[in-house]
Design a protein that fits this description.
The chain is mainly beta and 405 residues long. Helix content is 11%, strand content 37%. The longest helix is centred in the first third of the chain and has 25 residues.
Length: 405
């Protein structure tokens, strides 16, 4: 049997244990008393008022490659380090002038694991810190649109804005509505879908010469298809140069070059032969090469030709139509302007090596990507609107009908 004194001693011991536990909990809590100088006594230490937010949450696997960054309120950032996780590979970035925002200097890579460590101070000099390890959205779950023209370029009046997406887009309305194209000329610009991966924009008529065109891409996070999201966010501007439209007459074998409404030159040409006619229609110069190789086997002509140094070549279609210099024409052929002998291209007199004062060099030097070349009076059909940047061959009401918004 336990004596009364023994029971009392046990109860007192239990109370002492509880009191020590309570003291321990108080010491670990946020209300522990400590002075700013750490000497004990006095007022309670205050946490920093600075609040750091890293846009990519710790552990996330779908972070943006465009908008990931660091912000602070009620304070200024003092240090931000971003690396590829598990490595010493630093990601360069910069803090805004007011110290409130840090951003990477370049777009992040898709499907890559990163780490951000950030510190900031409030007005009283108290420090706050935040960290995040995250992975950017993967290539399998994102889409990107390759577009033309490029930012800062000067193009001809026929140049459409053309997007080619790396994934099939089923949510066309949302994707198109997050790309806006506007012109300083005030022309109405409408998008048209060619299938599920190409979206072009153009006005009803050619762009006005000298106008400025602005394309705003706001696709970051926009769902393009089931489980597939956009990752692009940027603004692109380009300038429309002078108006130049050149008309190739396959019947007379001549090309008339009209700039700003005035004829500046008529050039003899050689269009397609009766066996390999040239497409009719409005074609836009999409690429320029001082010299390039042309191999018939790449466009369905087998081994009929393989010329390694075709001079002053400018692409008019995806399927292989070019307007280019021809230095081999005079071998057994009448002078230019008499007969069509090509495999569907438009040839101009030139010399090997792309040198010399020739009609081909003159036209090359006086042409912009985006200039229009119209072919008429050929026995061939009109080129398809999606064969190259040639949507001008579609009636406006049909073009508008292909818009998703």
């Amino acid at each position: 049997m336990t004596s009364p004194n023994t029971a009392a001693r046990r109860a007192l011991g239990a109370c002492a244990v509880l009191m020590i536990g309570a003291l321990t909990l108080t010491a670990c809590g946020g209300n522990a008393s400590a002075t700013d100088n750490g000497k004990g006594g006095g007022s309670a230490a205050k946490t920093s008022a600075a609040k750091i937010v890293i846009s990519a949450k710790d552990g996330s696997t779908d972070a943006s490659i465009n908008t990931t960054g660091v912000k602070v309120s009620d304070g200024k950032l003092t240090d931000v380090k971003m690396t590829v996780a598990g490595t010493q590979q630093a990601v360069p970035g910069s803090v805004s002038a007011d110290g409130s925002v840090w951003k990477p200097e370049e777009q992040l890579e898709r499907g890559t694991k990163y780490q951000i460590s950030a510190t900031a101070k409030d007005k009283a000099g108290r420090t706050a810190a935040a960290n995040s390890i995250f992975t950017t959205v993967s290539s399998a779950h994102s889409f990107i649109g390759t577009y033309t023209p490029d930012n800062g370029t000067t193009v001809g009046v026929g140049m459409p804005v053309s997007f080619n997406f790396d994934k099939a887009i089923t949510n066309k309305k949302d994707v198109q509505s997050h790309i806006t194209v506007s012109s300083s000329s005030g022309q109405k610009v409408v998008g048209h879908w060619f299938g599920e991966q190409r979206l072009d924009f153009r006005p009803e008529e050619y762009w006005k010469a000298g106008s400025k065109v602005t394309m705003k891409i706001d696709l970051d996070g926009v769902q393009g298809a089931n489980g597939v999201f956009g990752v692009q966010k940027k603004t692109v501007t380009f300038t429309v140069g002078r108006s130049q439209v050149s008309t190739v007459d396959a019947k007379t074998q001549t090309m008339t070059v009209v700039r700003d409404g005035k004829t500046i030159r008529t050039v003899p040409i050689s269009a397609g032969s009766p066996q390999h006619t040239t497409y009719n229609g409005q074609m836009v110069i999409s690429e320029k090469f001082v010299q390039t190789r042309m191999n018939g086997s790449t466009v369905g002509f087998g081994g009929e030709y393989d010329i390694p140094d075709v001079p002053h070549a400018m692409r008019l279609s995806t399927s292989g139509t070019f307007i280019h210099g021809n230095y081999w024409y005079n071998k057994g052929n009448p002078p230019f302007g008499r007969k069509g002998t090509s495999h569907g291209c438009v040839g101009l007199r030139d010399v090997q090596g792309a040198k010399g004062n020739t009609p081909a060099k003159w036209f090359y030097d006086n042409s912009l990507v985006g200039d229009v070349v119209i072919v008429k009076n050929s026995p061939d059909s009109t080129i398809a609107p999606d064969n190259g940047l040639n949507g001008w061959n579609m009636a406006w009401n049909q073009w508008v009908a292909g818009s998703a918004v």
